[in-house]
Amino acid sequence: MNEIRKFIDHISPMNDADWKFFSSKLQEVKLKKNTTILKMGNVENYLSFITKGIVRLYIPRESADLTFGFLFNNEFVTAYDSFITQSPSEYQIETLAETTLWKISYKDLQQVYKTTDNGNTIGRKMAEKMFLIKSKRELALLSKTAEERYFDLFSERPKLLQQIPLKYIASYIGVTPQALSRIRKRIT
């Protein structure tokens, strides 16, 4: 739980009383590799912080899943659109490795926002960060080549290559696994 406190204090320091209230709402969950955290069509009821593991966000398809996000240690994971609207998710979330999460329910997070001094500030800053990540990804898909997206991905997140199956990376940059193989051959 110390990782969460450090992460939050980096955004906007929380006093001890607020931290005690917030941390009392957190629940630790340990998941095995390839565990579905959220199934498409279900409502996202939790915001989770990853202290260990890798998580993938994707749209399941019969031919091939469409992967659009990876999250690692010291990052929050949620189907944020489903979480804030409390409507069914249009995608799934699964673990790609053994994963430990600290999660807080929608209801409890609303209490944190109402009760603590800077809960709203932290929530706003996290929402802004998620928006910037999403915006950057959308712009890259519209304006960059698959090879440029591949380079960007590994300059920003070099551990992806060692830890995530290439079929998911191919889907993430918007190409087939065969096209990714050709890109990797050109690079080496």
TrEMBL record:
SUPFAM superfamilies: cAMP-binding domain-like (SSF51206)
Cyclic nucleotide-binding domain ranges (all copies): 26-112
Annotated InterPro entries: cNMP-bd_dom, cNMP-bd_dom_sf, RmlC-like_jellyroll
Protein's recorded name: CarD family transcriptional regulator
Record lineage: Bacteria, Pseudomonadati, Bacteroidota, Flavobacteriia, Flavobacteriales
